[in-house]
Every structure is written in structure tokens, then in C-alpha cells.
Amino acid sequence: MGRGDFGFDGLYSLNAVNNWIAVINSNLNATSRTGYKATKVKFRGGVTDTLRRPFGPQLGIQIPETTLQIDETSIDFSQGSIVSSTEPTHLAIQGDGFFCLAVATNGAANLFYYSRDGEFHVVNDAGVLRLVHSTGLYLVTNAGAAIEFDAQNDLVRLDDGAATFTGAIFNETHLRGFNAPNFLRFSRYGSTVFEVTGNANDVGAFNVTTGAARVIAQSLESSNSSLSQTLPELSLAQKFFSAVSKVISVHQTNLDTVINLIR
Q1: H-type alpha helices, the chain
Q2: Which candidate, 35, 8, 39, 36, places its Cα nearest to that of 22?
Q3: pLDDT given at position 2
Q4: How high is the pLDDT of residue 260?
Q5: 28 and 235 in contact (C-beta within 8 Å)?
Q6: pLDDT for 135-171, tens place per residue?
Q7: Are the C-beta atoms of residues 17 and 241 closer than 8 Å to each other?
Q8: Angle at the Cα of 177 from the Cα atoms of 227 and 193, rounded to 5 degrees
Q9: For the whole model, what pTM was predicted?
Q10: pLDDT score for 47
Q11: What pairing do the DSSP bridges indicate for beta strands 112-115 and 190-196?
Q12: Engineered SS bond to 52: which of 8, 61, 87, 152, CB 3.0-4.6 Å?
């Protein structure tokens, strides 16, 4: 892109701002979603141009970048507030870790997904009561053991692979943690269910230890996306959009003027 291509600069910047607004709208719409984590956008500039280098006392001529581009997005995994629920199958995590979810209950690690959304319900799976996520994924331990629901006393217990319960209540030791959770990416199951990019060891996966977290029954973790932060950011993004649109409009008018002069 050559010097003075303000039309192209504006289009690139407009696309970046448009994506920014899309992220903000997602955060705004998800303020009431269980276990949702807000997404942040980081910008970078385009190509700078140096017409004359500074030398000694002589100032140079340096043109800063005229485009706005998205450099990266990050997910804010900070704790959301815990709210009470009347459902005994609803679970909330206070502290570190993620619920482990799987498409099957055979313990295959490559089937693992991770979420802070603890809105589970019970399904009858061939006579066995399983805890299932709203996406249809099964709740399992970090070792892949299936989770069963004891309807008699409403306790979540582990399946030891036999016909009996082990008697172990689902707790923080069954969660999976990550040293670098921002390496998690959105999965095909939505923006509250994540998957590991590549090998789990690349992001420092670890089993959550006792005391590092607490699993609270009959509770849910609310979204950490805040209206008080999202609305001002949306207003700023809309002003950016209007300003960049004006630049493109002026550039188009200048082009039309030049073309008319040539004619």
C-alpha cells in the first residue's frame, strides 16, 4: 500500500473497527450468560513511512501509521460472581480450574473440552443418570472418569467403572487448570466451551489441588462481562467507526473530483 492511499487505509481501519464492535456486542449480549468470559481486543498500527531520517539537530520527516488493525484478542478469565440456583445439578467454580467435558465417557483425553459454565442437567443414559452440559457434552473428571448422579440423595458421584458408586463427591480435585489459559480457543460448542490449541502440555495443564478452588453446588458463576465497561467501549467504537467512514467519504469525493477534471 503506497503513501497517500487513504481510501485503502480507511477500509482496513473500518474493517478493524467493525470487528471490534462485533466483539463488544458479543460481550454486551453475554452479560447474563452463565460462565461467559469477556473478550478484549488489542490494536496495532500499519506501516510507517520515513521520508527523511533524523540526523543530529535536523529533524526528520516520519509519517506514522495511518491504519488501525487488530493485533490480537485475549479472553479475560477472571472470576465471575457466584449466584444461587434452585437446581441441585448446577455447579459453580470459585477459584481456579475448568469443568472437563467430553463427547463420550470413555476417558479419551483428545475428547476433552473445558468450561466454567456449570449449568448441567441429568439425562438417563442406558439406565445410568449422567450429568450433561447444555451443549450435550458429558461432565467428566480430569482423568476422564464419568460422572453419575445419585437421585436418591442428590449427590454427584464418580463412576468407578463397575456397577457401584465410589462415594466420592465431585470437587475441585476433578477440575483441570492451565498456567496460560489464553491459549485456549473457542470450540464449535460456543464461546463458553473451550478446547486446547495443540497439546495440553503446551499451555501448562495441571490438576487443580485442594484449596485452590471450590465447587459450589446449587450455584452458577455469572458472566464477568460488565455493562459499566462494555457500554462506554461501544460508544467509543461507534465514534471511531463514524470518523473512519468520514475519511473514506472525503477520499471518495476527492477521487470523483479528479475524475471529473480529467473528463
Answers
A1: 6-29, 227-262
A2: 39
A3: 44
A4: 78
A5: no
A6: 999 998 888 887 877 665 556 666 554 444 445 567 8
A7: yes
A8: 50
A9: 0.80
A10: 72
A11: antiparallel
A12: 61
Which range has the worst mean pLDDT, 12-21, 173-182, 202-211? Answer: 202-211
Q: How far is residue 35's CA from residue 76's CA, in Å, rounded to a whole number?
A: 12
Q: Which three cell numbers stand for residue 66?
A: 495511518
DSSP state, residue 109? G
Grid coordinates representing 218 are 446449587
Question: Within 10 A of 85 (CB to CB), how many other CB atoms are there?
Answer: 18
What are the cell numbers at 73?
484478542
Looking at residue 49, what is its pLDDT?
78
Under 8 Å CB-to-CB from 215, ≥6 apart: which residues? 91, 92, 93, 170, 171, 172, 174, 175
Residue 202 has what pLDDT?
Answer: 65
* Mean pLDDT estimate for the chain: 83
3-state secondary structure of 65: coil
Helix 6-29 × helix 227-262 angle, to 10°: 160
Strand boundaries in 151-240, DSSP class E? 155-159, 165-169, 176-178, 184-187, 190-196, 205-207, 213-217, 219-221
The percent helix, strand, coil of the chain (3-state, each to 5) is 30, 35, 35
C-alpha–C-alpha distance, residues 61 and 137, integer Å: 59
Enter the DSSP assignment of 39.
Answer: E
d(CA 68, CA 59): 26
